[in-house]
Amino acid sequence: MTTIDKTKPVMVTGANGYVASWLVKRLLDEGLTVHAAVRNPEDTRKTGHLLEAAAQGKGTLRLFAGDLLKPGSYTAAVEGCELVFHTASPFIMDVKDPQKELIEPAVQGTENLLKSAMEVSTVKRVVVTSSCAAIYTDAIDTTQAPGGRITEAVWNTTASLDYQPYAYSKTLAEKRAWEIQKTQNRWDLITINMSLVLGPALNPATTTSESVNILKRLGDGELKMGAPRMGIGVVDVRDVAQAHWLAGFTPAAKGRYITSAHETDLLEMSALLLPKYGAAFPLPKRALPKWLLMLVGPMANKLFSRRFVQNNVNIPWRADNTKIQRELGVRYMPLKTTMEDSFQVLIDQGVLQGK
């Protein structure tokens, strides 16, 4: 049982990120002092929404410089904190050098943050933003898991540097976090294992999350001929921020938490947008056949290898999301709300433009 003193500051890495921005806003709204680590605190284009949240909230925002690859760069921000949230990690799929762009930032960033937690004696709990990708690689892995769906007991064994390196990076980073946690007994570790996070970005113009790219592909005509029925889990970014808050401040919270609201696919997600946005945007209305994707997928997009298509298209995604609901009381928004709110923000910001 770990009780966090809310009068002490709370530290957040990657504080201007997609998920972290909502978490920081929640912390500020609740009147807490937030030590927000970002790559460049002077870049108001990327921190302006945090400054605005601080102006509107009851808490205090302190910006710190932090670099995933620089040992010790988080220590100053951790000083005086009992609770640390480590959300910083790249979420990109199309990379040239997966070792340099994904593995090193994810693993070394986790090591550097946790070494700072080891050095600062006030730290009592660390919440790491992990991913369901540390549990599975392809949709077929979820249906082949014990009981026909993934649980917190399952680890990813099929990703590699050559195949789905993002999932591999999340697996290595989370395993390293647990290894480091076991070397001490002052602070406990909790991981939030999210599926695909959608929902309105607080900083849509500057977010680099792959989540925004998926929405853009649905709305910009890239998939107007059809969308693959690719099994995925989806959760709203606001629910993920709430999950982090509860993981941080629930004394009995422990271990890993699958944070996923809906078992869906790209075509179903598009169908939820059609009634409101179908007249103005070329949203996909039919499923692309698997045989066609097997044939042309690898030529059209290097991420759509035959192995990927075989293991994900027309295969459901299954996860047991009951632990976080039972232990932390997390409740999820309807998928239609998530899809419409996500899409509307991109329109409002000019990222997507209709006919």
Automatic annotation (TrEMBL):
The keyword Oxidoreductase applies. Coiled coil: none annotated. Transmembrane segments: none annotated. Signal peptide: none annotated. SUPFAM superfamilies: NAD(P)-binding Rossmann-fold domains (SSF51735). Residues 10-248 form the NAD-dependent epimerase/dehydratase domain. The keyword Oxidoreductase applies. Keywords: Oxidoreductase. One of its GO terms (molecular function) is oxidoreductase activity, acting on the CH-OH group of donors, NAD or NADP as acceptor. Pfam families: Epimerase. This is Nucleoside-diphosphate-sugar epimerase. It comes from Dyadobacter jejuensis.
